[in-house]
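User: I'm preparing a small set of examples for a lab meeting where we compare how different chains pack in three dimensions. I only have the primary sequence for this one, and I'd like the structure in token form so I can line it up with the others. Please keep the answer compact; I'll paste it straight into my notes.
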Amino acid sequence: MIISSPSGGGKTSICRRLLTPLRKRRGWRFSISYTTRARRPGERNGREYYFVDEQQFAHLAKDDFFAEQFKVHLYRYGTPRQPLEQVLNKGGVILLDVDVKGAQRLKKVYPQAVTIFILPPSIKALRQRLRQRGTETKAQLRVRYDNAREEMKLFQRFEYAVVNDELSKAVRQVRTIIEAHSCRTENFNAEHLLKQLS
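Assistant: Understood. Below is the structure token output for the 198-residue chain.
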């Protein structure tokens, strides 16, 4: 499940709310990306991201460690390949919190993935959320604003879109999309079901 949004759209908060202990027991996982940006207050290495320097990131990229990797908002981000392959082999749900370019790249590599775009209720609300974080300089905020405008124009390339004007409502909508997708006929083991019916 590829969940994407412009910076400040709320994709990370939605993923955190979705991963309850019960869903973790049912095989739901969160794909933790690698990044070269600095840790923000309250973040922990290996929980929100794996924080590495440019040299470490370049080494991992050279070794084909990432399923996708891009430079976004002045920093590099990459999705490790191994967790995705494990879910494909064993089943379950893996949530990917990635930028718009990363989402498009992953969809090409994993066409069975479901793409969900999280929209802010307005650009004004997005600006307010980013300012309230207090983690970027004015120059960094300007880059994020400009990128957000361009990324929001691409929402129609995603299979689903959710407006995050109220977090609990947005979480319910994303959960409904995931649960509905699991009921699609192509996700059932047809051979097993037909044996049960015969």
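A couple of notes for your slides: The chain has one domain: 2-183. The mean pLDDT is 89.

User: Perfect, thanks.
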